[in-house]
Amino acid sequence: MLWETIRLAVQAIFRNALRSFLTVLGIVIGVGAVIAMVTVGQGSTEQVTADVEKLGSNLLMVLPGEDAMEGGPPGTAAAMFDLRTNNLLEEQLALIEVSAPMAMSRGRVVFGNKNRRTDIVGTDNRYFTVAGWEIAQGRIFDPAELKSGRPVCVIGETVRKDLFGSIDPVGEVIRIRKLSCQIIGLLRSKGASTFGSDQDDFAIMPLRTYHNRISGNRDVNLMFAAVRDGVPTDRAVREVEVVMRDLRRIGRGEDDDFTVMDMKQIASMLSGITGVLTGLLSAVAAVSLLVGGIGIMNIMLVSVTERTREIGIRLAIGAQARQVLMQFLVEAVILSLFGGLIGIIAGLSLGYLGATLLAIPFRPALGVVMTAFGFSAAVGVIFGYFPAQRAARMNPIDALRHE
């Protein structure tokens, strides 16, 4: 009996194939959009975590300013660090393997008739170790260059590509703002981050050179501290905070004027942001399912009206009301499941395309796919029940008189 009901439902659907397809288009768009959004969102979250882990899961970032990662540029409400603070942090904490100071600003670099704005970074060789940079050509700074503040620099791949093209940059002299600086090394490319920022767009020089020739002060904007293997980062954060409060002369009961964050915390924060955005976009996309359900109810009501005489004949020759109810309900469910199936294929295809274009992992969620398919079936039941019930309650005599 059930198979006969399904066969008749399929026949009724394909009698008006174009109308049926247009009816389920809302389901297709809704299911496809939800699956695509979740797939891209999960891939983005995984890529964020991988990008952060490239820097090291045992890495701490220390910035001036309370809650510097949450409210505005670091250092706006607190004094900057200096090189002495960085070195004392490394010396006083045995759990810190190495701490690298960084001073940064934006500026224009020029070579011949080519130029670009880039990040200008002042640091020392500890930064290359902490951040996991590899040298593609040339070398890093020697002790004499760091101590004397010689105008030498190491550049990223983006700067090389823009200024030099196919020319070997090592040994060439570029102008950074008003400073003539010799290139001694080129770093291996890391490419774009998850959020599209270019990780290779900078020129790095000795910290003393930066202070004397670029900034004119002794400020350190940021410190990267690598925790020794086996030391929990939450313990390291607490101990760094204690030492920093002492170095900054912060009294008991006074708020910190610095922020210590570990990479796990940053990864969790970024993953949370991508998760919220994915959820919001998926919720918006899910509205299409509601629209699709209303479309199914509308077309089923039209179908009931068109087939009134057919319904009357069936009731007159002995069909029960529940059989008529089941007939139209099955039609609505098959319509929505058909839309759900097409939506799954479209959603996975769009998710794969999005992952490819954004260079993130393609991670389809089986649970979301099954939920979307089940939800499309539920839409058919919910929005198909009223038209089916209307058909089942028809008076056979009135239905036979219908023109």
Walkthrough of the structure:
The protein has 403 residues and is an alpha+beta fold. It has two domains: 2-51 and 268-401, no CATH class; 80-256, no CATH class. 57% of the residues lie in helices and 17% in strands. It has 13 helices and ten strands. It has helices spanning 2-15, 17-55, 83-92, 125-130, 143-148, 157-164, 207-215, 233-247, 263-306, 308-316, 321-358, 366-392, 396-401, and strands spanning 59-64, 96-111, 114-123, 135-138, 152-155, 173-176, 179-187, 202-206, 222-227, 258-262. The protein has a six-stranded mixed barrel. β2 and β3 (114-123) form a beta hairpin. α1 crosses α11 and α3 (83-92) crosses α8. The longest helix is centred in the C-terminal third of the chain and has 44 residues, at 263-306. It is elongated, with a radius of gyration of 33 Å.
